[in-house]
Amino acid sequence: APPQMKRIPLEGKKIQHPIGKKLIEFALKKKSNLIASADVITSSELLKLAEEVGDHVVALKLHTDIIKDFSFDLIDKLKVIAKEKEFLLFEDRKFADIGNTQELQFKEGVYKIADWADMVTAHPIAGEESLQVFEHVGVVAIVEMSSKGTLTDDYYITKALNVAENSSNVLGVVAQRQVADELLLFTPGVNLSSKGDTKGQQYNTPERVFKAYHTDFMIVGRGIYQSVNAKESAIEYQTAGWNAYLESLN
Ligand code: S5P
Questions:
Q1: Atom of ligand 1 nearest to the CA of 174
Q2: pLDDT score of 184
Q3: Is the pLDDT of residue 250 over 90?
Q4: pTM for the model
Q5: What SS3 string covers the chain?
């Protein structure tokens, strides 16, 4: 169905995927559409951040391959915090290869993502069948990037959305625009005080992504983990995001 002018509230979204349903359940219960991106490089920083922001997020987005001292002890501890504070573990691996290689990257190697992640990101660039290897997780397809000069133009986005809509593993997409109601929309590139960085990142406000793009979940990295008080910043983003979401329903 084509995107509508009026947005559908989270509880009205027809999401089939169990992980998508879980995200919506957490969002409504916690009054949060916030996903914190924990782009820190040590286990201790990551665990501290998870403790501080856990009550205020529906998922913690990870780049496990940037963690210097990665171990499954870290994963075990994160799982405990995630269970207690009710959020999902979202590995932002951005898979972008043929199905067979992605399956190896997903299940094997150092990180064994398949053993612990609730959600993963993947580029749909290799086509629908390549995404079938991601079993038992929710796939978020990257259909449009936030950075200046990205190659994800309108033609690519249309084709990528098509792949996403036809893949049962895909619960939603990362994009900077409104998408069909059957998909959950995740939008990174959100910051309350900055317009961008010197490496191509571009930021919008929570207000803009909820009202103009009808996003379902905003992803905030440096706005939270680089702030003086991560917990206070998480609350600030949670409140700004949830209020903008509620206002966007009218
Ligand atoms: O288009 C994108 C897609 C993603 S998943 N743009 C992004 O910035 N991201 C990720 O969101 C990026 O990898 C990083 O982990 C986070 C944004 O971090 P921030 O510090 O710029 O808020």
A1: 3
A2: 98
A3: no
A4: 0.97
A5: CCCCCCCCCHHHCCCCCHHHHHHHHHHHHHCCCEEEEECCCCHHHHHHHHHHHHHHCCEEEECHHHCCCCCHHHHHHHHHHHHHHCCEEEEEEEECCCHHHHHHHHHCCCCCHHHCCCEEEECHHHCHHHHHHCCCCEEEEECCCCCCCCCCCHHHHHHHHHHHHCCCCEEEEECCCCCCCCCEEEECCECCCCCECCCCCECECHHHHHHCCCCCEEEECHHHHCCCCHHHHHHHHHHHHHHHHHHHCC
